[in-house]
């Protein structure tokens, strides 16, 4: 009898502990990781405890508007950057004037700067994401076209990619399409052998269409996207530059690429089949960005990502909420509505990725 009483008491105790634990798990509070100690403070940054990051929302999938907020590769990278610096995050749309935003103190850093562009008097980091005009095929064994191979290409009309094809292979080789989506549909149907497109936006478009493609060659030497900081702000150049380099080396940015693009962007070992340069393409076609269509975090594969705890403070034209710009680590994904889910896009903005 005494043994039975002891078992009953022990069971009651375990039940009480279980109920207490369950109550704790189902509380109304939401877990938010504790921020790291801030590595920088004013006057190195303009606002105490917050990193203000400028992006261009006319340049998806690096950054754009989706579901009423700023989302994209650069937003995810900004969240990781802020978290590593121990800061909250404010994402600000600086449009096509990053230099002006840095000069007037609207933002602390800007992302999505083409490292081949000479305009803008500010410090540039090393590239964190490569790009360039690429040739896509349905198979990695499709081969590299030559000028006399009779190869056929699809590219969005009036884009730098279309100009590169015409310049390198002749106008008769080109099938111009109204959108990059249509170009990949032509590739899938077998009416062309290759699609010419910006490497990043092409991967984003194909991934959004559920199409498995390979980059087999480049039509220009790869360039890349980098971070900009005011020339005078040497302390932030060092602090933010070191963190960005670490995000590249430790694979964090690869995770973000896979979220948006379905793969990482590796262009360094590809054959360049033309002597076209980025500046020559810009001079020949102009640099007007083209709309990538409906841009939403739901287009991206959310992958495995975790909340960095960065927050958006609503400064300027910023995205709302830290959880909408801040998941970058490993862990459970918080949902496709969260623009900061790290894992898979950025573009040079020269193709229309979708209708």
UniProtKB/TrEMBL annotation:
Recorded family membership: Belongs to the bacterial solute-binding protein 3 family.
Primary location group: other
Residue spans of biased composition, Low complexity class: 305-319
SUPFAM superfamilies: Periplasmic binding protein-like II
One GO CC term, this protein: cell envelope
Signal peptide: none
Domain Solute-binding protein family 3/N-terminal: 50-264
Region feature Disordered, mapped onto this chain: 282-355
InterPro entries: SBP_3_CS, Solute-binding_3/MltF_N
Keywords: Signal
Pfam assignment, any one: SBP_bac_3
Organism: Adlercreutzia hattorii
Bias-annotated ranges (Acidic residues): 288-304
UniProt superkingdom: Bacteria
Name by which UniProt lists this protein: Solute-binding protein family 3/N-terminal domain-containing protein
Claim: Signal is one of the keywords in the record: yes
Keyword Signal: yes
Subcellular location: Cell envelope
